[in-house]
Amino acid sequence: MRPSRSRVSIKDVSRHAGVSVSTVSHVLNGTRYVSPELRARVEAAITALDYRHNGLARSLRTRRSYTIGLIIPDVSNPYYPQLARGVQDTADEAGYAVFLCNSDRRPEQEVRLVAALEQRQVDGIILDAAGPTPELLTALRRLRQPVVLVGSRIDEPDFDRVMMAPHGSYDAVRYLLSRGHRRVALIGGPPVFGSTRPTKAAGYLAALAEAGIEPDPALIMQGDYTREGGRLAMHRLLALSAPPTAVFAGNDLMALGALVAAREAGVRVPEDIAIVGYDDIPEASVAVPALTTVAVPKYEMGRVAAELLLARLRGEGSQQPQRIELPHRLVIRASA
Amino acid sequence: MRPSRSRVSIKDVSRHAGVSVSTVSHVLNGTRYVSPELRARVEAAITALDYRHNGLARSLRTRRSYTIGLIIPDVSNPYYPQLARGVQDTADEAGYAVFLCNSDRRPEQEVRLVAALEQRQVDGIILDAAGPTPELLTALRRLRQPVVLVGSRIDEPDFDRVMMAPHGSYDAVRYLLSRGHRRVALIGGPPVFGSTRPTKAAGYLAALAEAGIEPDPALIMQGDYTREGGRLAMHRLLALSAPPTAVFAGNDLMALGALVAAREAGVRVPEDIAIVGYDDIPEASVAVPALTTVAVPKYEMGRVAAELLLARLRGEGSQQPQRIELPHRLVIRASA
DNA sequence: CTGTTAGCGCCTTCAG
DNA sequence: CTGAAGGCGCTAACAG
Q: Which structural domain, as residue segments, surrounds residue A11?
């Protein structure tokens, strides 16, 4: 009768077991009492026919896919795997699967990915965005599913968000100052379009100001968060007639690049120049000298973001967007 | 009439535009000619009603989810992000989204994840498995969707698979031998249950044999692919009455641990002892001394695996399972 | 305690 | 060139 042994559905199972489809559905989901006898027949039919539950159909019906989307700049950037793992572990424990997407920090890409995830009917999205571009914000706001923002580049009050405490760079520079450094350079990141958040440069400036030190523009470099960018910036710093005695880099990748530059220039770290990074990526502890850095709780951020999202999906928690700030920690190693 | 402004479907759009649902569907998918006039009306209705295409319903109907699953041991292990990126890029280009799952190299977990992905109706699965456990193999074979195996721990002829060339450890040890080393130690990985593939130990032994060197059991350590495991193994090696002059570690994480151990013991690398790793993870080039290692084309492996899977999904290619072997490359840096 | 039935939102013959 | 209609496989009222 059936064309071939194509796919077997709940209906085939019900027929085989001599029960109704709703009974099958209920034994599948444990969602109402079914007599041991019928249950046994259903289970027998299931294995006899080698039936598999179709989650798509179920999701279509229940409007819940038990699926979330995670958009990060790049999994192969050592910062993100831990964050990803944090959300995945949390999601997995709750029965959710996660679509992992890389945006390469390109706003159009982010917008595209958000749309693709929406179309796949994810229940929610966690996003580490490049910045608060109007297009992205619009795309996010018209979304029907909840969004949690991670990272510190967007701080819009109408979204749930988990961010790092803002004063990491301040702490780092203060530490350098406390060690007697007076000429402290900054290798910052590129400006984030439209961001209203205090930048790393702000913390740097604040620490200098507090110590009564006039910032020297020559010591302020703009990097791009890549290793190579850090290396180049460091070389320019080292070529100055009055080079700095300490450098604070906006992330570890750039700090590591700076380390390479120092070695290339025959300058000793930390004896001739101290270096502090930001993030505490795995490589930071392996480098020689091991990098002093502002440790960011990456795994924890992922976990908290996922928990926030799941709570929202469960309808728990306050209705207002939450803003969660996670503490950093200055990890003092050998480079400063 | 409709309860509320809940969800708008293709049917609402058709009504609003005064056309049939099939016309709407066809403008949505560009799947048959629609007169400019009707098309315009449909498009107007779409924006007017703020309609969003429901991918779940579509997939249910077409039996294609444009979704694949990727199961790896652990994203936060520096080996995997690049592999993951390779498959994600390839999938993304072809319009597929990828579910990323971590198995922590636990067979039961792998089996569980395979089932979860199947239920979510992924079109295919890419898996870097812990080993050929019978349960996993069974689960994989009863799957209705294609599977591609990556990594070298399973080499079953009835699956598509992309693996590394087998002689990496042989090359590494031969290199050490060519540099005059005679006492070369091995820090291997744990045995892979049921695997028939040549292990790294095999290559090590082969290279020694070829050089006419009797393997010394005291120089063969079993590690666990973790940094700490490498560190411990190295300490034991260093404590030997006749310690080795060179060490080959089965992966970079262990080699890095060995480096740490050497430093702790005040032994210089490579002057007192040479170290070669395997994988070429990002940290390998940052370490001091930079690690000489067998570079594995991780990104490429991911890409090739995804391409293989996509080809299968398109029904292209030979019907027989493919076995693709990717070459490694010995990267000589400072540690040996 | 179990069965019938109406969709979820979409694609795709089959007619016209 | 366009429309009508039948499911894809499942859940959840609603009856009984």
A: 5-53
- Both B38 and B139 in one domain: the answer is no
CATH number of the domain enclosing A35: 1.10.260.40
- What is the pLDDT at residue B208? 94
Q: CA-CA distance, A313 to A127, in Å (whole number)?
A: 16
Percent of chain A past pLDDT 90, that is, above it, reads: 82
Residue B44 lies in a domain: yes
A221 in any annotated domain: yes
* pLDDT for res A1: 27
Chain B residues near residue A67 by CB distance under 8 angstroms: 99, 120
* Residues B120-176: tens digit of each pLDDT: 999 999 999 999 999 999 999 999 999 999 998 899 999 999 999 888 999 999 999
Q: Residue A321 sits in a domain of what CATH number?
A: 3.40.50.2300
Closest CA to B159 of B127, B199, B205: B127
> Testing the interface with A: which of B63, B85, B93, B120 to mutate, by most A Cβ within 10 A?
B120
Task: Confirm if B192 and B152 have CB atoms less than 8 A apart.
Answer: no
Residues of A whose CB is below 8 A from B120: 55-56, 67, 97
Q: Which of residues 165-224 of B touch A (CB under 8 A)?
A: none
Domains identified in chain B, total number: 3
- At residue B292, what is the residue type? T
From A97's Cα to the closest Cα of chain B, the distance in A is 7
* Statement: residue B91 has pLDDT above 50: yes
DSSP conformation class of B138: H
Are B276 and B302 found together in one domain? no
* Same domain, residue pair A228 and A259: yes
